[in-house]
Amino acid sequence: MRLEYKYLISNSILPHIRHDLLPYVNYDKHLQNGNQDYTVRSIYFDNRKLDYYYEKIEGLKVRKKLRIRGYNFVEGKNLIFLEIKKKYDNFIYKNRSPLLFEDLNQLFETGDVEGYVSEQYRNDESVNDGKRFL
Fold it and tell me: What residues does each domain of the chain span?
């Protein structure tokens, strides 16, 4: 669980904010090759009535999102995540199931979560999270 707040800021002050925050934060594990930032790619899912979209627009305090998320490049053997993100007021919970990008289509065709959850990160929770996502 984490507590999350978001703020709109001008791009012109972003370097100053980064500089001021640097002593108080640790670099993210997704950084590669000495870079100080990375790309997050997400595909969001909803039902035909767009319930998840309208929950967000209406500002409901309890809501969820379904998404596939990858970092930097999403191709081949790169790790991606099936995620269910739940929000309760300002508190965030995530259920994540890791798999390889190259296995995503097969997972959707077969529904075989146990066969495609990444061996490196496999545990009962990650398998169950994948099943929940599907």
Answer: 42-134
What tokens does 55 get?
A: 């929950």
Residue 118, amino acid:
S
Residue 36, pLDDT score? 72
CA pair distance 93, 63, nearest whole angstrom: 11
**The one-letter amino acid at 120:** Q
Give the pLDDT confidence of 62-104 residue by residue, as tens digits. 999 999 999 887 777 889 999 999 999 888 899 999 999 999 9
For every residue of the chain, DSSP letters joined together read -EE-------GGGHHHHHHHHGGG----TT--TT-S---EEEEEE--TT-HHHHHHHTT-SEEEEEEEEEES--STT-EEEEEEEEEETTEEEEEEEEEEGGGHHHHHHH--HHHHB-GGG--HHHHHHHHHH-
